């Protein structure tokens, strides 16, 4: 059964091109031209992946991401936008986007990015993936795709959980940004790619700030990150 991809894009020519290439790559795409309709379909159809333009009339892409994530909709979102500044990329990721492509991009790359996020959402867990991990007051529950701090849900998103779990499985070992990008996002780092840093910052807000006696996300400057309990 092919993965459903919701395309929210108001440029009809681009939307048709994306649909055609995603269909050729084995997906089942449907496109809508407004943020309002896109959000309704995200709510009620729960597609496997959403490809979202930011510059939409009415409800723009930023607000679609924000609203979807605030309602607990975990559908992976791949942003496609002519806005390519670092600020725009970081802001979209902070709101809850999973990936970001700057227009113009190749349709092959779009299909590869959509394939990567779809695979993360539906792939069978590896042998250790079902194991609950408990480190001091932090508990990771892969079955519910959720982290708990002192017994209370940290409200992490699916992508945040994947990053946290990837670090926890390698507890105490420093993972480079490139390793984490490949494991969690299925791609290699590009120049000034701050995706991992943005997500680690969000996890620190949700995990380290709430924990009573430890911090968990540790930085090895110039190298990467590790998950290890250190007393506050």
Helical residue percent band: 40-55%
Taking strands numbered 1, 2, ... along the chain, how are they ordered across the largest sheet?
2-1-3-4-5
Distance between the termini: 49 Å
Question: Total strand count, please?
Answer: 12
What would CATH call the class of the largest domain?
Alpha Beta
Please, could you describe this protein's structure?
- The protein is 41% helix and 23% strand.
- It is an alpha/beta fold and 232 residues long.
- It has a five-stranded parallel beta sheet with strand order 2-1-3-4-5, with helices on both faces.
- β8 (146-149) and β9 (152-153) form a beta hairpin.
- α2 runs parallel beside α3 and α6 crosses α7 (177-185).
- The longest helix is centred in the middle third of the chain and has 16 residues, at 107-122.
- Residues 122-128 have low confidence and may be disordered.
Compact overview of the structure:
With 232 residues, the chain is an alpha/beta fold. 41% of the residues lie in helices and 23% in strands.
State the main characteristics.
single chain; 232 residues; alpha/beta; Rossmann fold; Arc Repressor Mutant, subunit A; five-stranded parallel sheet; 12 strands; 41% helix
């Amino acid at each position: 059964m092919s993965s459903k991809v919701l395309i929210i894009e108001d440029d009809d020519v681009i939307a048709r091109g994306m649909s055609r290439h995603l269909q050729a790559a084995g997906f089942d795409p449907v496109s809508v031209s407004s943020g309002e309709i896109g959000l309704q379909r995200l709510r009620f159809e729960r597609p496997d992946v959403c490809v979202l333009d930011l510059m939409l009339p009415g409800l723009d892409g930023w607000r679609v991401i924000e609203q979807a994530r605030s309602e607990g909709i975990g559908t992976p979102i791949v942003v496609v936008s002519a806005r390519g500044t670092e600020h725009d990329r970081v802001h979209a990721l902070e709101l809850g986007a999973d990936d970001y492509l700057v227009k113009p991009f190749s349709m092959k790359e779009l299909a590869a990015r959509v394939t990567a996020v779809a695979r993360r959402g539906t792939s069978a867990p590896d042998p250790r993936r079902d194991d609950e991990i408990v480190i001091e007051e932090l508990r990771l529950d892969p079955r519910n795709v959720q982290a708990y701090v002192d017994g209370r849900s940290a409200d992490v998103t699916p992508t945040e959980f994947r990053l946290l779990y990837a670090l926890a499985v390698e507890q105490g070992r420093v993972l480079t940004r490139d390793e984490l990008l490949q494991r969690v996002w299925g791609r290699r780092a590009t120049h000034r790619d701050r995706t991992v840093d943005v997500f680690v910052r969000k996890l620190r807000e949700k995990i380290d700030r709430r924990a009573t006696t430890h911090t968990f996300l540790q930085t090895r400057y110039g190298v990467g990150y590790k998950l290890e309990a250190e007393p506050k």
